[in-house]
Amino acid sequence: MFSGQTKAHCAIIRFLPTTAYYCMKFPGRRQHKHYFPVDNKNPLNNQVNPNSQANNNYIVGIDQVLVDIEAKVDHNFLAEFDLHPGMSQVISDDVTERLYQRLKDESLINYEFAGGTIGNTMHNYSVLADDRSVLLGVMSNDIHVGDYAYRFLSNTSSRVDLNYLQPVDGPIGRCFTLIDDVGERTFGINAGLINRLHPDSIDETLIAGASALVISAYLMRTQAGDTMTEAAIKAVKCANAAGVPVVLTLGTKHLIEKEPSFWQNFVKKHVNILSMNEEEALAITGIESPLLAANRCLDWVDLCICTAGKDGIYMAGFVDETFKRESDYPLVSAEIELFNQFEYSRPMLLKDCQKPLRIYTHSAPYMGGPESIKNTNGAGDAVLAAILHDLSANVYHKNMVANSSKHKQPALTYSSLSQMSKYANRASYEVLVQHAPRLSRGLPERENSLDQAYWAQ
């Protein structure tokens, strides 16, 4: 393995007489692999040309750092802490401490996980890619074994760079998921100091050197005295100026439906890739159909990802007419006729297309979805992590072999829209079959399932 190559980037190396050939291979069996020359060794000393070594690439995410705590309680417990069943409520520091201590004393806690939609995405990306990501946010200055900050750090991949977190004198966020005896979920949220990330803590050089900047709509939901929104806007503007793709995940329909016009203008001005579920898609576009909503979002962004629960994933993007590739799958018509015709195309930024063509794909859940869904929290974060893995792989490959024929097309991603959609579905499946919202391991290179046709094309 050459210096700087991770095992996610370097699955197969084949040596021919004078040329090393390398295969980019994502999890899952692929019949079509891309082989490309990495370097030409000097025949006299058999040494690799040092100029061919890959530059380090990474993604950066900004998040409200918090811990998810799940417990089973009864209605009397909820009433004691003035929590309304089935609702999401902000709770004070005092109530938070009393609530947590009561749950601990009575051994009611089922799980404690590191949380946050971007924190989950950075962790999942680093697990899938076995590569570096950087998380920006705040972290308690004083950390004790077993406390909330400790829980967050101990449940985050070591490949996630936490060195840029801003220290604060106080707690990080805590989100309590309280499940009553009829299965209804009640949420108690204590923000702590998660929204105190200061603009001065945003390293512009770090942002400018990233393969992507990832943010969530939650960063714009702050109170007086909070500085998170200012910090996020500074990072976004820096990424825009440096040509770094900005990725936004909407997070919750309740936030979007309050000001849909604001979000439409924001994504049109600042965002390249938009990730959402069908409810959030309805909130920002007013369109119920996930496919048509994704198509509407192409009026504002370059690439759109829309998860639709048991219906799977819809994706929409652009490709130049010159580089379009027709699908080998049966063509499908829905609200858009023959919408998957060019799903084998690699998506591009709209500005890089001379004759832009809109492309779409849809993937049903992997293996029809799990027999038993243990958790839906974090499935969308796994989807986005898989897309980011593909995007960063493209940057990695371009750094390694800038003159490769693959980069005659100025594509945004390494794989086609269709392959990315299937990979994202596969990653989300792993979250759905476990209790934790984060991946605990990478995906297998070869599936145990006999249904290999999923990866065949």
Primary descriptors:
457 residues; alpha/beta; UDP-N-acetylmuramoyl-L-alanine:D-glutamate ligase; five-stranded mixed β-sheet; disordered N terminus; kinase activity
Please estimate the helix content.
Answer: 25-40%
Let me know the largest β-sheet.
Answer: 9 strands, mixed
- Uncertain regions spanning at least 5 consecutive residues: 1-45, 48-54
How many DSSP H or I helices? 12
Strand order of the largest sheet: 10-8-4-14-15-16-17-18-19
Radius of gyration, in angstroms, nearest whole number: 22 Å
SSE-based structural type = alpha/beta
Domain Carbohydrate kinase PfkB: 148-317
Keywords: Kinase, Transferase
Organism: Colwellia chukchiensis
Protein name: Inosine-guanosine kinase
Question: How would you explain this protein's 3D organization?
Answer:
The chain has 457 residues and is α/β, with parallel strands linked by helices. The chain has a domain at 117-167 and 195-432: 3-Layer(aba) Sandwich (UDP-N-acetylmuramoyl-L-alanine:D-glutamate ligase). The chain has helices spanning 75-80, 93-105, 117-129, 148-154, 204-208, 228-242, 253-256, 260-270, 278-285, 290-297, 379-400, 417-432; strands at 12-15, 19-24, 34-40, 59-62, 66-72, 88-90, 109-114, 133-136, 138-140, 160-161, 166-168, 173-179, 185-190, 212-216, 246-249, 273-277, 303-307, 313-320, 356-363. The chain has a nine-stranded mixed sheet with strand order 10-8-4-14-15-16-17-18-19, with helices on both faces. A five-stranded mixed sheet has the order 6-13-12-5-7, with helices on one face. Strands 1-2-3 form a three-stranded antiparallel sheet, with helices on one face. Helix 3 packs across helix 11 (379-400) and helix 9 crosses helix 10 (290-297). It is globular and about 65 Å long. Keywords: Kinase, Transferase. This is Inosine-guanosine kinase. It holds the Pfam family PfkB. Belongs to the carbohydrate kinase PfkB family. Residues 148-317 form the Carbohydrate kinase PfkB domain.
